[in-house]
Amino acid sequence: MKREEKAEVVQELSASFAKAKLAVLTDYRGLTVSSMQQLRRELRDISAELKVAKNTLLNRAIQGTPFEPLSGHLKGNTALTLSEVDPVAPAKVLTKFAKDNPKLVIKTAVLDGKELTPDDLTALSKLPGINELRAQFLGLLQAVPTGFVRVLNGVPQKAVYLLQAIKEQKEQTN
Predict the structure, then answer these.
(1) What pTM did the predictor assign?
(2) Is Ribonucleoprotein given among the entry's keywords (predicted)?
(3) Residue 21 has pLDDT above 80, yes or no
(4) Residue 11 near residue 3, CB atoms below 8 Å
(5) Which of 24, 33, 61, 148 has its CA 20 to 30 A from that of 17?
């Protein structure tokens, strides 16, 4: 790789780090090409990306960013997963994929400048994602007016039942 190509790769990685909220380092040694493609596809579906680059270039790209704690883990085969939007979704995909494919080993992660262990990433993956939280919030917003309408509707409804019972009682006495 020529010097200009290396500088271009470092610049591209630096731009990706500048936008990212979550970065995860994994060891992909022993994974087949088809399983790596499957992992890339799953990550792409949730707006995350998997990159493979030389450790020295990754180390240069993270200098001066909140992702500097990753530099101590740049050894061996390293794949980098970056997410700009939702940090929970990539954590879910990676932990599930690592469970199904034991050859994928999660080394470490950094979320908003804080280093996470693989256990921390697993705990993060158990949290609801952004779409699940939106659905829960929407359900909560719908539940309050619905409950209020039911309460308001209950009073006239009980009055109608009372009148119906009085009518039936009078018909039985006649």
Answers:
(1) 0.72
(2) yes
(3) yes
(4) no
(5) 33
The two structure tokens encoding residue 74? 């740049």
Tell me: pLDDT of 15 over 90: no
pLDDT score, position 42: 93
Q: Is the pLDDT of residue 168 over 80?
A: yes
Average pLDDT of the chain, as a whole number: 87
User: Phi/psi class of residue 51: alpha, beta or left (left: φ > 0; alpha: ψ in -120 to 50)?
Assistant: beta
Q: DSSP code of 87? A: S
Residue 93's Cβ-side half-sphere holds a number of Cα atoms within 13 Å equal to 24
| CB atoms inside a 10 Å sphere around CB 19 | 10
- Label residue 173 by pLDDT band (50, 70, 90): confident
The number of helices, as runs of H, and strands, as runs of E, in the chain is: 6, 5
SS3 for 48?
A: strand
- Per DSSP, 85 falls in state S
Q: Residue 41 carries which side chain, given as an amino acid letter?
A: R
Other Cβ atoms closer than 10 A to 78: 20
Which H or E run contains 79? strand 79-83
Residues 6 or more apart from 108 whose CB is under 8 A from it?
Answer: 24, 25, 69, 70, 73, 115, 116, 117, 118
Sign of the alpha-carbon dihedral angle for 92, 96, 99, 105: negative
Kindly state the helix (H) or strand (E) to which residue 121 belongs, with its residue range.
helix 118-125
